[in-house]
Amino acid sequence: MDRFLRSRSALWIAFAWGFAEATFFFLVPDVWLTLLACRSLRSALRGTVAALCGALIGGALMYALGRMAPDAGRYLLDCVPGINQPLLASAQSQIDNRGLLAVMVGPLLGIPYKIYAVDWGARAGSLLGFLLVSIPARCARFLATALAASALARLLVPWTSRRIVTELSLYALCWIVFYSFYFRKFGW
Asked: Which long-range CB contacts under 8 A does 171-179 form with residues at least 24 apart?
């Protein structure tokens, strides 16, 4: 398992997950990145770059959807688990008040990045500006979760003895609890 988590395949998964979550997938790439970080911080850092690249391509695609067919983009977003009309309205309001700065703040508050991409495209905002702001917006959270997972895994070594089954069980429990609260708050 550790060999796989350090492989190019693991990077492609990070890339694909970053792209998928930036479009219509509802689980954040942090799920994969934290798994990598639990076993190898270096793999997680490489995965962060791959996930960022995927997210930027997915964000550009969602921007294009918002620009060409904003109503269809909003409709499709509303079909994604964890996204609802109040969340869409909140992101629109944030962009009204903060412009592109909303892209930096919103995802840290649990508002999916894809919503900002569609809304910014619908406003015919600058794609280059959106992508430039997306780099620190996406990367900051990816890095923070990877670093936190790596530190936690190291702290737990006396109890887990680096047994992968034990670490994966704790890892899965953390994400199940997180998404239980998230979907309770924003709906499935």
From this structure: 171/34, 171/35, 171/38, 174/34, 175/31, 175/34, 179/27
